[in-house]
Amino acid sequence: MQQVNLGIIGGGTVGSGVFHALQRNGDLMASRIGIKVHLRKVAVKAFDEPRPYPIPESYLTTDWQSVVNDPKVDIVAELAGGTGIARTMVLTALKLGKPVVTANKALLSAHGEELFSAAQKHKTNLYYEASVAGGIPIIKSLREGFVGNRITQLYGIVNGTCNYILTRMKLEGADFAGVLADAQKQGYAETSPDLDIDGWDSQHKIGILASLAHGFWMNPKHIHVEGIRHISALDMKFASDLGYTIKLLGIVKRIEESKDKPARKSQIANRKSQIQVSVYPTLIPHAHVLASVNDVFNAVFVRGDVVGDTLFYGRGAGKDATASAVLSDFADAALDLKFGTKHRVPAFVPHERDGAVLPMDEVTSRYFVRLTVVDRPGTLARIAAIFGKANIGISSVIQPEGHEGESVPLIFMIHDAPNAAMRKALAKIGKLPVVKAKPVMIRVESFE
Ligand code: NDP
Ligand code: HSE
């Protein structure tokens, strides 16, 4: 049997998971693909660091360059993380013409264009299945399975840590900090968990999926991001009473020009596709399948113009689920080394020259708004007047019964309105003397 040699940089949650999975199923994979993926070395920062699965010291080195430069190493896996030294690691391997497997979505988001063109220039390939949605083979599905489709909508719960936190807050009333500590213990969170909580990790992932779906590299600066820090138990309860679950959702939507909302002149002139690409907490109807994706599970809903609706579901983080995706890349890289890549759909090739992300101010959606107001005559009228003046329609209002003169929550459900108009109206409402706390606004998705 043929053999390819592998060098891994990183032996932490993912790296040790990959080591363990190779020990467990390496022979099975070899019997399926006809090539043995043989591990030569694992680079780490320190030998004595505790690892989720132990890696024998005979495999370890603290010199990542010796792994990349080893002439016997055919495939390099970057499982170290970050966007600084990791970029150098990947570029060094690509320049040597070695295929690279990475789970590093932050790196791809920041330097994807450069890395894919380096891979092309050096006639090799970059594999990144583990970078989005853990064990779910969503990259391969978009790249190969849906190659004959125009993707009109894609919705993703793509951060396991946030979904784990939101689920436990909702089902157990657990407090935010405690659940985050649990997610970190399980190895779900990033080294800096702010990347998860503030939505950046989802931004990296949704940018990768959007780029694949729409054929131009998404500049992360154009992707609107909101995290889950401001979501309270009160929002979850009111949302639930109204028939909704709150999820951190990545949204990629092709916005069709309509009679009511013609494209701007500049867009017609440049023939730009208008794509909404954003990440924010979202109210999802209880009945929608994404509302029941709980814990560390991720799900990606893809609508193609030929295939219709599809749904992908699985563990979005953790050592084993992620290792599964990394092993699938090893198999592809080994097969590509053996047969060349010409017969496969390339990892990423830009093919839409004029694509553009729709500015968030122009995105239209429905909204849930929670205000903290003084219960006194005229409060509701003043707020409604501001919405009315901005041409923003209220679809329902809830105020739990309280005592006159006390602070009470006041909930509005708002009809479709542009984000800019909503932002301006809420800024005005927030300044009213009867409004006692910063207004909370969460968008509502209808999946139409
Ligand atoms: P960890 O912090 O658990 O592991 C990082 C590993 O990289 C450690 O083994 C560390 O060494 C090693 N390392 C860091 N810098 C260097 C260096 N300069 N030279 C050699 N080794 C180095 O991170 P994860 O395993 O959680 O994440 C790795 C990557 O996978 C990240 O890009 C992350 O975003 C991504 N990812 C993580 C998932 C998860 O569920 N955790 C899921 C999907 C993707 P040492 O052990 O000595 O500290
Ligand atoms: N921190 C990430 C998450 C890891 O929680 O989803 C998987 O990419």
Tell me the CATH superfamily of the largest domain: Dihydrodipicolinate Reductase, domain 2
Helix content: 25-40%
Mean pLDDT: 93
Please report the first level of CATH classification, the CATH class of the largest domain: Alpha Beta
Please describe the structure with a list of short key phrases separated by commas or semicolons.
Rossmann fold, 37% helix, Dihydrodipicolinate Reductase, domain 2, 17 strands, binds NADPH dihydro-nicotinamide-adenine-dinucleotide phosphate, 448 residues, 6-stranded parallel β-sheet, binds L-homoserine, 11-stranded mixed β-sheet, alpha/beta, Alpha-Beta Plaits
Explain this structure.
With 448 residues, the protein is α/β, with parallel strands linked by helices. It has three domains: 2-134 and 319-339, NAD(P)-binding Rossmann-like Domain (Rossmann fold), CATH 3.40.50.720; 143-316 and 354-360, Dihydrodipicolinate Reductase, domain 2 (2-Layer Sandwich); 363-444, Alpha-Beta Plaits, CATH 3.30.70.260. Helix content is 37%, strand content 25%. The chain has 14 helices and 17 strands. The strands form two sheets. Strands 7, 8, 9, 10, 11, 12, 13, 14, 15, 16 and 17 form an eleven-stranded mixed sheet that branches. A hairpin with an 8-residue loop joins β15 (394-398) and β16 (407-418). α4 (105-121) packs parallel to α9, α6 packs across α7 (176-185) and α13 (379-389) packs antiparallel against α14. The radius of gyration is 24 Å and the shape is elongated. It binds NADPH dihydro-nicotinamide-adenine-dinucleotide phosphate (NDP) and L-homoserine. L-homoserine (HSE) binds at residues 134, 159-161, 188-190, 196, 201, 316-317.
